Amino acid sequence: MTAALVSAHGLTKHYRVAGRRRLTAVNDVDLEVAAGTVRAVVGESGCGKSTTGRLLLGLETPSAGEVRFDGRGLAERSPAELRALRRELQVVFQDPYDVLNPRMRVDTILREPARVHGQEGSARSVPDLLDLVNLSSDFAERYPHELSGGQRQRIAIARAIALNPRFVVCDEPVSALDVSVQAQVVNLLRRLQDDLGLAYLFISHDLALVRYLAQDTTVMYLGRVVEEGPTEQLFADPRHPYTQLLLAAVPRVRGERSATSREVRRLGELPSPLDAPPGCVFATRCPLADDRCRATRPELRDVNGHRVACHYAETADVAA
Ligand SMILES: Nc1ncnc2c1ncn2[C@@H]1O[C@H](COP(=O)(O)OP(=O)(O)OP(=O)(O)O)[C@@H](O)[C@H]1O
């Protein structure tokens, strides 16, 4: 067993929303990312993936539970320690336009993290960074609007690795890109992960991608973990009805996106996180749900080599 680089324990995040109601975006989540490995987080839009990512990065404070890095809680660290830790924790978002200042040349963009952290001496050089993301050195002179979507995402990735981080949250890093360049950027992320020994939390709707990149996978639904384990195991033998339906929706033809979640959507609307069902969170849409599921929430437990939160995990088979 590799020691966890980043871990969450009982991680919970509430937001106050209109009418002073409490929305629970992330609910009692446990997860670990081992050093140098990739953990995917999958699930429909709104199930709490991005909030989990922000909590792990310390960009938001948990309402309950904690995040540890190198075995030490973020909350136990002094402001100076947290500032130093920021260098180790980076993020790549879906839309690089949001993070690349349009008035800065690539050269300035790539030097920015070192300047902000006072790390000019130890950061990777601009030519080195461009080389790592397979762009020639003349890209240093360009502005973001002079780049294609794929090139912009390469620059955002280069910026994320400028200070030699150990953990990168990749939040839907290729879903805004043309299908034709997605594979190149995914291969780049995979190569960097391998060459630089990075650990990723890889947030994605694309299960084919997850299977290619991630050693471990966490399936979330309405803020909770419903299934979790080694990716190969979980994909070969999904035990939660929700995971079974998600996997049944994986496009069978490369590049075909329209099938995504068709099976799941057929089940009707995702309930609002403002009124999550009292028993199993998936009960309102699950073909197997009965009174027990509606009344009693199933805990995560070991089933066939991974962890599943379903009363009927041993026999569930809804996607056949
Ligand atoms: N700052 C906030 N204030 C209020 N509600 C929020 C806030 N951030 C997230 N939420 C809500 O929390 C829930 C989880 O959102 P989150 O963005 O984490 O989901 P997600 O799975 O990443 O979805 P997506 O794939 O659409 O980004 C959603 O219902 C969302 O509306």
Automatic annotation (TrEMBL):
SUPFAM superfamilies on file: P-loop containing nucleoside triphosphate hydrolases
- All copies of the ABC transporter domain together span 6-247
Q: Which CDD domains match?
A: ABC_NikE_OppD_transporters
Going by the UniProt record, its keywords in alphabetical order are: ATP-binding, Nucleotide-binding, Transport
Q: Secretion signal: which residues?
A: none
Its domain of life reads Bacteria
Coiled-coil residue spans? none
Q: Which InterPro entries match?
A: AAA+_ATPase (IPR003593), ABC_transp_ATP-bind (IPR050319), ABC_transporter-like_ATP-bd (IPR003439), ABC_transporter-like_CS (IPR017871), Oligopep_ABC_C (IPR013563), P-loop_NTPase (IPR027417)
Looking up Pfam families in the UniProt record yields: ABC_tran, oligo_HPY
Name the Gene Ontology biological process terms.
peptide transport; transmembrane transport
Question: One GO MF term, please?
Answer: ATP binding
SMART domains assigned: AAA
The UniProt similarity line reads: Belongs to the ABC transporter superfamily.
Q: What is this protein called?
A: Peptide/nickel transport system ATP-binding protein/oligopeptide transport system ATP-binding protein/dipeptide transport system ATP-binding protein
Protein source organism: Jatrophihabitans endophyticus
